[in-house]
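Run log // design_07
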């Protein structure tokens, strides 16, 4: 039963990787848009690009916290699996 819990973390890990990639590509695109002369001549477009860059920077700073909490959850889950296996009952094999 505990191994199902470990396997259920796979979609979470994939989601985190995809989210990181989307944020990275979004940041690159906004940086490139900011370098275009036509866009930077418009104050509205420049404001939108700047706000988008600030939003991505703020959201990106939370990745460290998200990853640390995720790793902590995995470690607690593994600790629970090994504790149950060590008590001699109710634990499942790791194979």
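design_07 sequence
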């Amino acid at each position: 039963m505990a191994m199902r819990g470990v396997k259920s973390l796979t979609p979470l890990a994939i989601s985190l990787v995809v989210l990181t990639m989307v944020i990275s590509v979004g940041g690159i695109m906004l940086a490139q848009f900011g370098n275009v002369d036509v866009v930077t001549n418009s104050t509205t477009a420049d404001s939108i690009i700047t706000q988008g860059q600030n939003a991505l920077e703020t959201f990106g700073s939370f990745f460290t916290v998200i990853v640390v909490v995720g790793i902590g959850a995995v470690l607690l889950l593994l600790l629970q699996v090994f504790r149950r296996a060590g008590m001699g009952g109710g634990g499942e094999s790791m194979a």
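The mean pLDDT is 75.
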